[in-house]
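Something for you to look into today, if you have time. Just paste the record in under my message, thanks.
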Amino acid sequence: MTKNIKTLLLSSVVLCGACSSIWANSIASKMTDNILAMDSMEGELVQKKVLVDYPNVDVVQKVIYQKPWKLRTEILAPASIKGSLFLYDGKQNILWWPNELFGIRAINITSPERDEVYKHLTHESEVALRDYAFSLSKTEKIAGVETNLWKILPMVDDDYHHYHEMWMVEKYSTPLKVEILDKDKKLWYGMEYKKVSFNKPLPDNAFAFEFPTNAMVIDWDYADTGISLEEAKKTMNFSVMQPSKLPAGLKVEKIIRAKGTIPMLAMVMDHGGTRVSLFQSHAFGPSPLMKYGKEVKIANTKGYLSFTGPFSSIVWIKDKTQFTLIGNLSYPQLLALASSVQ
């Protein structure tokens, strides 16, 4: 398909509401097949504008992916957050902050099936085609790999639907570079792979990790039956809240209490390939302990938005409760969800 035809087709979708569902299904099916065609990826990624106190300092990460859905991202620089880790090995999800000797481990997180991923991407495509207009600009090599440059224009006028430029490896539906601009056309967020390789064998221990013996680790089991909202409110030492506005098809499936004696809970909203969890705990100060990511507004308070592969996370505090929202929805959807928590 030529550049002009691709641009015309995707632009026309925005003008044809009745067609958008058909196109979303077609795009999602192709993206699902493309992603599953990638056996592995390994690279070095640079993120820009994600350190609140040092906005001009880049964050360098090592990224490893293995089919299906295993992902490991580890910060290499700067030294102040070196070793910070996000890991999903097919069974468990681990987050680790070595400077704080603090970690989170969630077990029994199942991988989505192909059809579940397709349905999730259909939803995301419908939202994207509703909220943005797309045009294909040119081809360009990023980290030595041929990509297509897509220019993405927001059709929604708010603080978090931004103009994007995205350099995409089309055969894997994987971006190697993204630049998001604010309303003044200045860089709001950027990411770019400086090194990348596809489909090369990974070492057997690529996704191995053990917490140090002196680490404080919060454990969760997603196979737990869960507790009621009433029990959560009685047993937690903070104000338990819930979202009042969720994307279509999502609901709070269950509430899980963390293992051990520390009162913490997770509201799990997973539905097929859509993965969303809202963690809650007592806040020990006016702002989150770890300020990492883009500073954003959540209702009348500040929050911090960060990106890890297909997932975004938002951390904020409201009425002495600290919230961490993690999900694979687009970040404007997550921001809207976070703002509805009450």
